[in-house]
Structures are given as C-alpha cells and as structure tokens.
Amino acid sequence: MFSVTRVRFMKINMNLLPAADQKQKPANVLKVPFGTEFTDHMFSMKYVEGSWNDAIIHPYGNLSLSPAALCLHYGQGIFEGMKAYRRGDRILLFRPDRNFIRFNESATRMVMPEIDVDFAITALKHLLKVERDWVPEVQGSSLYIRPTMIGTQAKLGVKPSDEYLFYIILSPVGPYFKEGFSPVKIFISSEYVRAVRGGVGAAKTMGNYAASLYAGTKAAEVGYSQVLWLDALERKYLEEVGTMNIFVKFDDELVTPPLSGSILSGITRDSVLTLTRDMGLTVKERQVSIDEVIEGLQSGKVVEMFGCGTAAIIAPVGQLWYNNNNYTVSDGNTGKLTQHLFDELTGIQSGDLNDPYGWVVEVE
Ligand SMILES: *Cc1c(COP(=O)(O)O)cnc(C)c1O
User: How far is the CA of 14 from the centre of ligand 1 (A)?
Assistant: First the structure.
C-alpha cells in the first residue's frame, strides 16, 4: 500500500504556449459534441520511487507511454469528472474537494497512490487561471474537468504499477445528451450487468465503462440512449444508469438505491438528497425492485424518474424499455420536481442562486 505523499507545497512549473499558438475557441459551445474540444494547456505530475514529482502546467498534447505500460494491459486507471462555471469574471467550482476525496477512494481500491486533496485543488485552480478564457459563459455551458491517473510502468505481468501519471485536462461543453434537458429513453438490461458487490463498481475506474459498452450498443440499436443496470446477483433491484445515479418518485416518496458497494457514490446524488430533504420531502435510500417500478408505472404511482450526475446534471427519464416492452414515465414529459432540481442545482452551480451549503468554491 502507498502512504499519502505530502505534496501540498510542491512547486508547479509553467510551460505556456505563446498567445499566437493558442487554439481558436468554439464559436458556439452548445453545438460542440460533449468532450470533443480541449483547451490549450493541461496539468500533470508523475509518481516515481514513492513520491509525486514534476508538477507542471504545459501545452495539451499526446502522451508518450511504453506500449507495455501496465494501464494499457490491466486497466489500472481512474478518473474524475467535475465542472467549472463562469459568472462574469468569476470562475466557480462545485464541491471540488468531494471529487478529489473520491479520486483517492478509487485510487485505494485500485492499489494506486493517493494525491493530496488540497494540492490537487490548488493545481486545478492554477490551471483554470491559465485557461480562464476557455470557461464559457452561455447558459447551459461549462468547462468540463477530467482528472486522471494511470499506471505507467512498462511491465507485462499483473501487478500494481510502480510509476503513475496524474493529469488534468479541460473541455468546454454544452449539454451531455444531444436531447439537451429533455426526457431521455432508458434501456433496462436484464441480460448484462455492470458491477457486482465486492467488485470495483464503486470506483471511477476505466474498466467499468468498457464493461458497459456492449449493453450500451444493444440499447442504441433499439433507440435508447442509456442503460439502467440491475443488481448483478438477482437482476431485480435498480443500480444506476451509465454515468448517473437514479431517482424514482413514487407519489410523495423520493427513492434512490443505497450505496451498496456496486454503484458510484455520486456527488450530484448527494446534493439532490440534501436539497430534497431540506425541501421537506420524504426521501429514502432503499432498494427499489424493477417490479415495483413497472407496477408503479402501470398504476400511476411512479410520477417522476430522473438520473443525476456531473455531466448530465439532472436528466428526466421519459421512457423505459424492459423485457421487450416500452413504458412511458407519467406523461413522458419532465416532472415538476425534476425541473425544480435542475433549476436549483444549475442555479447554485453557476452562481445565479444563493448557495446556503457552501458548495461553490471560487477560483481566485
Ligand atoms: C461519475 C458517475 C456518476 C455520477 O457521479 P457525480 O459525482 O454526480 O458526477 C454516477 N455513476 C457513475 C457510474 C459514474 O461514473
């Protein structure tokens, strides 16, 4: 196991591009497919001989890796997803400490070294100051932030890497789904599963997403944009959607599956739980069976369903596919609570609404 390396005061070197060599920013960020444009610079540092070194902000560019790098063969890689918002001249982050704490939890599960949370936030703020002009202002846009760590030691043979690369890249984005904030169609997989209790489902690690692709393609073939996973043992209880946690509103009760070890502990999920509890709603973290959902859809007891995650924020669920049947959630439109939570969360994140929770962190 690794000890936490104290790098809080590590110097961050700068190697910046001359203005003339910097890229053109997208004319309309809302039209750019999610995660396809990258800014001029990135942050990186290396872990060798037991400590983090060489912290630097440098031009965005390809990595140089051995073809035998352990991450390429055995999947020792983790990442995070967060966003920066612009409000006039201010650049705002949303609960960034939570992302780096979770990053370290993923690291521990994958036998990778931790990073210092305060240093990571400092490095991110430095990078955002350099890339300030890349944070878009138009409503519905943000700068997506992708911290990543990979095992880079060249070795064939399954073992934890001795060397790691940590980096942060930035991508100006609009809505995650091409539908924007309109109801998505979700495919419930009763054949394939994502993660099993005791496995790595709770870690934001590369292999989980590779494991999801096959069912995702099957869903796309029949016109559904996302897969909702059921638990791997019984294929009975709701787990989560591709990159989102799931909420179901039964009459007056809002429900989301508990953190059982096979789903991601979403920061948006946690924020939704806080907001809805403070609204006085009855909110439960409990198992929800697919039968309860289907019955509720048929009886009208299921009044709203939505997914939530940093990339999509809040995504209303309009249609469900299960066992060769299509079900419409309520009237298929965005529910009242779903709309309210979207407005509330995006309002707090972008600085338009008051933030009573101290979630927003300004880049100064
Ligand atoms: C990132 C992610 C989420 C959402 O987490 P947030 O912290 O809300 O962004 C949910 N499920 C999976 C599988 C994820 O990778």
Answer: 31
310 lines ligand 1 (CB under 6 A): yes
- Per residue in 80-113, pLDDT (tens digit) is 999 999 999 999 999 999 999 999 999 999 999 9
Q: How many residues does the chain have?
A: 364
The pLDDT, as a whole number, for residue 181 is 79
pTM of this prediction? 0.95
Sequence-distant (≥ 6) Cβ neighbours of residue 337 within 8 angstroms: 249, 254, 276, 281, 304
At residue 240, φ and ψ (nearest 5 deg) are -165, 175
- pLDDT-based confidence at residue 7 (cuts at 50, 70, 90): low
Is the beta carbon of 226 within 6 A of some atom in ligand 1?
Answer: no
| 201 CA → ligand 1 middle, Å | 11
Average pLDDT value for residue range 52-65: 97
* Backbone dihedral angles phi then psi of residue 254, each to the nearest 5 degrees: -100, 130
Which is the closest atom of ligand 1 to the Cα of 102?
A: 7
What confidence category does residue 4 fall into, taking pLDDT thresholds of 50, 70 and 90? very low
Pocket test for ligand 1, best of 34, 245, 306 (most atoms within 8 A of CB): 245
Cβ–Cβ under 8 Å, residues 340 and 348 = no
Distances, alpha carbon 319 to alpha carbons 216, 217, 223, 231, 339, in Å: 16, 17, 11, 20, 17
| Domains, the chain, with CATH or none | 13-173 (3.30.470.10), 184-350 (3.20.10.10)
